[in-house]
């Protein structure tokens, strides 16, 4: 699969047609992978990220069960964490639920998109958002960069 992705060559707008938004961010000066997707109704981060960066865990006020994450059954989500992160000039901090996920370090869903008045350009897969009074444009990684990050 990876060889197939690397061998495909076409312009950036075509390659973004079937891809979700992947990018890199910095959390406590460490590079992390970040995905923005409109499907999840929560912001999530991986248990691996929490343990590697020794972030302070907060007890979840309303724990819940999550089943869409994997095929092994329900996962009880009972912990949260506040994550400071930056993507270029854009800096933010948000609360997210801690789950055992392998797709990336951080998954931003509908709550983050709503709070930031996020606008997603489906053709270019770019995200425009507002933080305070400033507007930012976030650009995705190319499919080959995403594969490289996943291999690493």
Please explain how this structure is put together.
The structure is a single chain. The chain is of the alpha+beta class. The protein has a single domain, classed as Acid Proteases (Cathepsin D, subunit A, domain 1). Helix content is 21%, strand content 44%. The protein contains five helices and ten strands, in the order ααβββαββββαβββα. It has helices at residues 2-7, 12-15, 47-53, 110-115, 143-151; strands at residues 21-27, 30-36, 44-46, 57-66, 75-87, 90-99, 106-108, 119-121, 126-131, 134-138. The strands form two sheets. Strands 1-2-7-3-6-5-4 form a seven-stranded mixed sheet. β4 and β5 form a beta hairpin. The two termini are 16 Å apart. The model is unreliable at 9-13 (pLDDT under 50).
Q: Which labels suit this protein?
A:
152 residues, alpha+beta, Cathepsin D, subunit A, domain 1, seven-stranded mixed β-sheet, three-stranded antiparallel β-sheet, 5 helices, 21% helix, 44% strand
Amount of beta strand: 35-45%
Rg, Cα atoms, Å: 16 Å
Level of helix content? 10-25%
Count of discrete structural domains? 1
Which spans of ≥5 residues are poorly predicted at pLDDT below 50?
A: 9-13
The CATH homologous superfamily is termed: Acid Proteases
Number of strands: 10
- The CATH architecture can be named as Beta Barrel
Tell me the major beta sheet. Answer: 7 strands, mixed
CATH fold naming = Cathepsin D, subunit A, domain 1
Placed side by side, the strands forming the largest sheet appear as 1-2-7-3-6-5-4
- H/I helix tally: 5
CA-based shape: globular
CATH class: Mainly Beta
For the record, give the distance between the C-alpha atoms at the N and C termini, rounded to a whole number: 16 Å
Structural class: alpha+beta
- The average pLDDT value, as a whole number, equals 85
Helix and strand run: HHEEEHEEEEHEEEH
